[in-house]
Structure formats: C-alpha cells, structure tokens
C-alpha cells in the first residue's frame, strides 16, 4: 500500500490517527476542571507539536541514518522562516508559496553549509555546523537587519507590496490563509463539559507532517537509505566497496535542511513573525534532544520526542507552588509542605531539570530512546509468551 | 603483460622499510599467492593496491592503468575488491544487507540517488546477494546482524561482499584465518570453482600452506619487504631460501 510494507503502512496509519484526533485526546480534562490546565489541545501548542515533529523527522534522516551529529540545524529553520515571511510580504498572503520557498531556500543554504562541514567528520563536523549556525545567528541579528529585521524580527506589515493579492486588502494586516481560509480559524465543539478546538492551521501542519513522514519512511526503506546506514556503520568500508560516502551524506544533510526549512515555513504561516533567536544554538540543541529522547534512527521516535519536549516546555512548566500546595493539602501539615519543597524545584520553571533527568535516564537505560525501549519491552514480553506456549 | 604489474614499489614507515623494491606480475585469470613470515609487508603491499597507502616510489598498473593516486572507491569501481585481514563489515546491518550494498555499488556506481524505490523491490539485487551467500554456505544466516557472527563467518561474509561485485581482481588477505577445517575446505572449493568458472584473477595471502598449495597457480615469497622467490608451487616447497626466510623470521 502506497509502496510501503504492511508494517510501515500501519505505522503511517497510526500517525494519521494520532494527528487527526490530537485535538480530542490532548484535551482529556473537562473545561474549568482542576486539571484543565494540563490540556494541550489548543491550536498554538498543537501546531508547535507538529512543526517540531517535522523538524525532528528531517533531522533524524541525517543523524539517525548517517550518524553525523549536526549542531546547526536551527540555522535552516531560521532561514526558512525568513524566506517564508518574505513570500507573505512580497508575493501573497496565501501560505503555499511561503511553505515551498522556505523549503527551497533552506535546501540551498544547507547545500552550502553541508558542502563545507562534511569535509570533516565526528566532532569536527559538529563544531563546524555549530560555528556556521552561530555565524548565521549573529549575521541575522546585526548586519543583515535590512533582510531579517534584526533584533525586532521580520513580520508582515500594512504597506507590504504582495504583488498577487495586495490590492484586495483593506485596512488591516491580512492573516495568512490557504486560498482565503485563515490559518487562525477554528471550529469549537463542546461535548458535555469538554471543549475541542479544530484549527485550520493545525490541520494544514498535520497534513504536511503526514507527507513528510511518508517521505521519510520511503527514504528509510530505499537503497539510498541503506547506504546512509552503511555510512554510519562503517564509512571506511563503504569506500572500499566502491561507494563515495560524501555525496550520500551531503544529500542526507540537504534533505534534513529542507525539512528544517519546511518547519520554518509552517511556523511563519501560523504566525507571520521570524526572529533571529530561532537560529540560536539552543534551538539546534533542542532538535538533537528530541531525536535522542524519542529514538535515534527509529521512524516515529523523533515525532514522539518533539511532542514530549514541547509538552514539558509549555504545560509542565506551568505548575507553580500554589498549585502544588493545593494538591498536597490533604496531607498532614508538615508532610505536605515537605513534599512540596522537594518537588517544587523540578516543576514549573524547573522543568528543564526534570527533562534533563529524564534525558539522562533514557540515554543510560534505553540506548534506542523511548521507542527503542518500548519495542525492547514489547519483544521481551512477546518472546517470553511465545516460548511459554 | 599481466593483469596486475607492480614495479619497484617502496614504502617506508619512519625507520622501517616495509616494502623494498617489490616487483610482481599477476597473470589474468590466475590465482597468485603471497606468503611470508609475520611482518613481511604482505598486507602493506595490498594496501598500496586499493588506495589505503601510497607507495613512496614505484608503479602499480592494473590492465594498463595506474592504480596510484586514485580514491579507494574509484579503484573498486575499476574492478578491484578486497577482503581485509581484520574483518571490515557493516557490523550493525544484517548479513544480507552487507552483501546487497556492494551489489548496489557494482550496479549503480559511486553515487545514485535512489531514495524512493523500496529495497524490497530490488529483486535482482536480492537474488544476487542470496546466490553468493548460498555459494558460501551462509544462506541460513541472511537475517543475522553481522556483528554477532564468528570470526570465520565474518571472513566468509566479506568474501561474499567481494564476489557479488564480480570483480576482475580479488584481493584476499588471509581469508581462512579463524575458520574451522570444514569451512576452510569449503572456502577452497568455492574459490577454486570461481577461479575456474569466472576467470577472476586473485591474489591470496595465507599462512595456511594447505590453502596455498590447493589454490595457487603461482607463489611469491615476501620477507622483510622484498620478494625473495617467485615460482610455481611445486618449486617453492623445497626452496632453501624460503625455508631460511621462515626459520629466520618471526616463526
Ligand atoms: N600504517 C602503518 N604504520 C606504521 N607501520 C606499519 C603500518 N602498517 C604496517 N606497518 C609495519 O610494517 C610491517 C609490515 O606489516 P604488514 O602488516 O604488511 O605485515 P604482514 O606481512 O601483513 O604480516 P602478517 O602476516 O602478520 O599480517 C610491520 O612491521 C608493521 O608493523
Ligand atoms: Mg597482514
């Protein structure tokens, strides 16, 4: 089906269901209930889940398959964002050109940086990508201000030319749309005490994620993908086998750069604002964490990792001291306070601490990330059962 | 003129003259054995053929074209495959994948952006890899992860990786080291069969004299970086110089 094996097709189907039903299952708590603040099913956040999922899927094609650890992929996301906003300003408020052009621009940019960085491997490659990304960040924030808007960032404005549809707009800055359907438009459906929000922008992002995921499966299962795995396994041997590893790694680098650009293009299609901080090394590091946490070299791991980290960043981080005290109020005075004192550093603003711990545990005890760990458990249980029979 | 012509090759590592004016002619379609004590420079010589090392001086001509100064992948594409002394395999991949990669390299060249065709649909490549593994008695191990195999099996796997490319020249660096007697005999059979049926030229380095005398059409004896004798197998056994080299060497 669709050129996929049965197992891969089911994986794709699973992701389809996951993203299609996300607005429902990410809002498990009734509106106004005690736990409502743990609902993650609002458009902003769901868009971010999916966009960073795309970013991580692409990053995994480079890091997961070839083992080349890039610390500079945020530069491509940033470049894609700027390109996207420029399309929204110059061409049309329709998001299609913005998304396509940001992918293309990031592709060209990554060809350039990849060509130079891939002259080295291992840690030197990582340092080169980091250096390029930091240079891009510095340039975007200073010298390139006319193109990037410097520190304030680049955004759509009232006097934008918009060659294709500029005339049709009245007194407001138009919102990005897909042939007139605004990205910010949502249908709200209330079922009992629950409230579900179905947002146009989210479903566009989800649709793009499915395509991105499908392409990634095809790459993983292709001869090209097998060569990339061989690069990771034994680069030397590959050249004695008649293969030149460099063009393979460069192709993987450019593909992952284009995924990053695509993510950037979607970001500005949801919210037409691009800033230099998007290129900073912390943003590059984040996608590395997502990929490792979910499972390097697994198909679905990066999507999971992206979702998890974004959930932590946005939801887990909101737990504050008041809330903790409410939760533990049922306990005897001293004990409750004691527990709150212990837990407090790990929640709210301390979410990085919990994430860090979780990351360490995964790296030490689950070398294959969450997906690797889960499939390991599954296999063990399954095998035990089949030998018992 | 031979398939491989080596003239006046020298290689020095610091103070050690690893190869000293080596001359070698390998006739097309023949199996040429290189023997000699440990540290004689046998592997170093092969390294000079596949682009791992560049000799300080001398020439290496393969069917009239120089192999020196070319990239390893270009040399392989020219028809030279090698089995390494310490197994060089794709340890994380399966046995079948290990053999399909060189098969793809043989068909598609140094780079091919074949990113959408599922590997499952490469039936030709699958069949060729299976056939070679079958020949080497590894048909039951295709789905094993290469890293988990015994040293002898890794050897056989590497041989399959070389043979699937249908090379013009196959370089074998101690192909039977670490193999059981039975597997060694099987390997001898396979190599002899391939030598006879496909006419692949082979250079084989071996310490196991049973293997050498079963296969070789011609033997060169290397000691301290120099070819001291080159002759037909029947003349090597009784040669005084050869016995001296082994007795005076590391053995
Ligand atoms: N890359 C290198 N750098 C320095 N010295 C080297 C290098 N490669 C080989 N040598 C040295 O050159 C000499 C010849 O080594 P080589 O591996 O060619 O021997 P060999 O004949 O293959 O021996 P064996 O039968 O043990 O495999 C040895 O003394 C070895 O230590
Ligand atoms: Mg050797």
Secondary-structure blueprint of this entry?
The complex is a heterodimer of chains A (389) and B (251).
Chain A: H1 6-25, H2 43-66, H3 74-90, H4 95-117, H5 122-141, H6 145-148, E1 154-155, E2 177-178, E3 181-182, E4 186-191, E5 194-199, H7 200-220, H8 223-240, H9 245-270, E6 273-274, H10 281-294, H11 301-314, H12 321-327, H13 333-343, H14 351-365, H15 369-388
Antiparallel strand pairs in A: 1-6, 2-3, 4-5
Chain B: E1 4-13, E2 16-26, E3 31-35, H1 42-50, E4 57-62, E5 65-66, H2 72-77, E6 80-83, H3 95-108, H4 123-135, H5 151-163, E7 169-173, H6 181-198, E8 201-205, H7 209-215, E9 218-223, E10 226-231, H8 233-236, H9 240-248
Parallel strand pairs in B: 3-8, 3-9, 6-7, 7-8
Antiparallel strand pairs in B: 1-2, 1-4, 4-5, 9-10
Bound molecules: adenosine-5'-triphosphate and magnesium ion.
Quick gist of this model?
Chain A is mostly helical and 389 residues long. In chain A, 65% of the residues lie in helices and 5% in strands.
Main attributes of the structure:
heterodimer; A: 389 residues; mainly alpha; ABC transporter involved in vitamin B12 uptake, BtuC; two-stranded antiparallel sheet; two-stranded antiparallel ribbon; globular; B: alpha/beta; six-stranded mixed beta sheet; four-stranded antiparallel beta sheet; 9 helices; binds adenosine-5'-triphosphate; binds magnesium ion
Description:
The complex is a heterodimer of chains A (389) and B (251). Chain A has helices at 6-25, 43-66, 74-90, 95-117, 122-141, 145-148, 200-220, 223-240, 245-270, 281-294, 301-314, 321-327, 333-343, 351-365, 369-388; strands at 154-155, 177-178, 181-182, 186-191, 194-199, 273-274. With 389 residues, chain A is mainly alpha-helical. Chain A has a two-stranded antiparallel sheet. In chain A, a hairpin with a 2-residue loop joins strand 4 (186-191) and strand 5. The longest helix of chain A has 26 residues, at 245-270. Chain A is globular and about 70 Å long. Chain B is globular and about 55 Å long. In chain B, the strands form two sheets. A six-stranded mixed sheet of chain B has the order 6-7-8-3-9-10, sandwiched between helices. Chain B has a four-stranded antiparallel sheet with strand order 2-1-4-5, with helices on one face. In chain B, helix 3 packs across helix 4 (123-135) and helix 3 packs parallel to helix 5 (151-163). The model of chain B has no long low-confidence stretch (mean pLDDT 92). Chain B has helices at residues 42-50, 72-77, 95-108, 123-135, 151-163, 181-198, 209-215, 233-236, 240-248; strands at 4-13, 16-26, 31-35, 57-62, 65-66, 80-83, 169-173, 201-205, 218-223, 226-231. The complex binds adenosine-5'-triphosphate and magnesium ion. The site of adenosine-5'-triphosphate has 12 residues of chain B, from strand 2 and helix 1.
């Amino acid at each position: 089906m669709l050129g996929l094996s049965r197992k891969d097709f089911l994986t794709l189907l699973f992701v389809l269901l996951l993203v299609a039903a996300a607005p429902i299952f990410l809002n498990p708590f009734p509106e106004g209930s005690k736990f409502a603040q743990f609902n993650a099913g609002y458009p902003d956040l769901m868009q971010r889940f999916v966009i960073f999922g795309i970013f991580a899927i692409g990053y995994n094609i480079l890091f997961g398959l070839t083992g080349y650890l890039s610390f500079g992929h945020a530069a491509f996301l940033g470049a894609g964002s700027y390109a996207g906003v420029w399309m929204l300003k110059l061409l049309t408020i329709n998001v299609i050109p913005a998304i396509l052009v940001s992918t293309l621009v990031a592709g060209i940019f990554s060809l350039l940086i990849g060509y130079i960085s891939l002259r080295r491997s291992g840690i030197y490659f990582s340092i080169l990508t980091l250096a390029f990304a930091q240079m891009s960040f510095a340039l975007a924030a200073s010298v390139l201000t006319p193109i990037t808007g410097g520190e304030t960032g680049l955004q759509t404005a009232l006097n934008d030319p918009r060659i294709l549809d500029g005339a049709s707009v009245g007194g407001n800055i138009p919102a990005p749309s897909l042939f007139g359907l605004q990205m910010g438009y949502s249908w709200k459906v209330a079922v009992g005490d629950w409230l579900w929000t179905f947002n146009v922008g989210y479903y566009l992002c989800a649709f793009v994620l499915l395509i991105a995921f499908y392409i990634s499966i095809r790459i993983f299962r292709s001869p090209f993908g097998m060569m990339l795995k061989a690069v990771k396994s034994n680069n030397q041997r590959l050249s004695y086998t008649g293969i030149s590893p460099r063009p393979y790694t460069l192709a993987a680098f450019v593909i992952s750069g284009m995924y990053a650009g695509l993510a950037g293009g979607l970001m500005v299609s949801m919210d037409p604002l691009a800033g230099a901080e998007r290129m900073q090394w912390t943003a590059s590091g984040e996608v590395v964490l997502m990929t490792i946490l979910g499972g390097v070299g697994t198909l679905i791991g990066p999507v999971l990792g992206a979702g998890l980290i974004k959930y932590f960043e946005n939801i887990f981080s909101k737990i504050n001291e008041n809330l903790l005290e409410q939760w533990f109020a049922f306990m005897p005075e001293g004990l409750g306070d004691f527990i709150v004192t212990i837990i407090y550093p790990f929640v709210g603003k301390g979410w990085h601490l919990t994430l860090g711990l979780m990351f360490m545990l995964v790296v030490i005890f689950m070398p294959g990330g969450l997906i690797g760990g889960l499939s390991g458990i599954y296999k063990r249980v399954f095998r035990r059962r089949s030998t018992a029979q | 003129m031979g398939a491989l012509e080596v003239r006046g090759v020298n290689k020095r590592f610091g103070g050690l003259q690893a190869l000293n004016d080596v001359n070698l002619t390998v006739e097309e379609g023949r199996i040429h054995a290189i023997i000699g004590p440990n540290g004689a420079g046998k592997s170093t010589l092969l390294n000079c053929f596949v682009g791992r090392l560049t000799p300080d001086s001398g020439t290496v001509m393969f069917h009239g074209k120089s192999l020196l100064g070319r990239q390893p992948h270009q040399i392989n594409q020219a028809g030279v495959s090698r089995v390494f002394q310490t197994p060089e395999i794709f340890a994380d991949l399966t046995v079948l994948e290990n053999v399909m990669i060189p098969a793809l390299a043989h068909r598609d060249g140094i780079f091919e952006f074949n990113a959408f065709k599922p590997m499952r649909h490469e039936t030709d490549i699958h069949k060729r890899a299976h056939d070679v593994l079958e020949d080497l008695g590894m048909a039951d191990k295709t789905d094993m992860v290469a890293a988990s195999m015994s040293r002898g099996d890794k050897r056989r796997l590497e041989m399959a990786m070389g043979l699937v490319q249908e090379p013009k020249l196959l370089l074998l660096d101690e192909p039977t080291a670490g193999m059981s007697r039975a597997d060694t005999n099987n390997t001898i059979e396979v190599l002899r069969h391939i030598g006879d049926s496909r006419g692949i030229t082979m250079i084989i380095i071996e310490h196991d004299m049973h293997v050498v005398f079963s296969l070789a059409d011609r033997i060169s004896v290397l000691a301290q970086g120099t070819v001291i004798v080159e002759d037909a197998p029947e003349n090597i056994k009784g040669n005084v110089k050869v016995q001296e080299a082994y007795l005076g060497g590391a053995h």
